[in-house]
Amino acid sequence: MRKYNKIDDKFFENDTIETAKSLLGKIIVKNEGKNKYLAGKIVETEAYLGENDPACHAYQKTTGRSRVLYEEAGTIYVYFIYGNYYCFNVVTERKGIGAAVLIRAVEPIEGIETMRKNRYNVKKDFDLTNGPSKFCMAFGIGREFNEKKLSGDGIYIAAAESKERFETAASKRIGIVKGEDLPYRFFIKNNPYVTKHKFNNI
DNA sequence: ACTGCGATGTCCT
DNA sequence: GGACATCGCAGTT
Fold it and tell me: In angstroms, how far is C13 C1' from A157 CA?
């Protein structure tokens, strides 16, 4: 395995938009046991700001599902959607604020053979992880990680590997109706693992 | 390349 | 009973 330096949970206590931006380029790592790891560079995120954000699951209420969003920074929020899929979020800000960052796409770094196996019908490597549920399928992430902490040893986030430079951009969030005009999607420009979208060239 | 649309289970009103 | 932070496939250009 490569060397990954886990980020402290304090990082996620910051402002959700800033956290979503600064997660770009960082590494998400899943410990598969037996010294096996899956790792990918985060290339696309979205911010969900809590009770005042119409698109957020915590909008104006706490429900059984959104309860996790109010946990302490660095808690994992995984939810099930469209009858088939999971989406992976990192809870941000202090306990009691229902905000999170959605991981929308990553670029495989380690364990790509396992990702190909988990996505057995996918032909092009950039389709392995260029979408929030594609990432979950490739990494084998399901509801069992909901409410877990990034400070544990199952899934964690690590500092960027090198001091590489990249350009980032923002756009509207994808696939939502309420709060659709808010520019809370962030991505690395020209990275082939970012989801395909007309908002990408601005 | 792009467009439209069906599948599917859970949560919420 | 409706909505849903998606994906993959089929059809078209």
Answer: 43
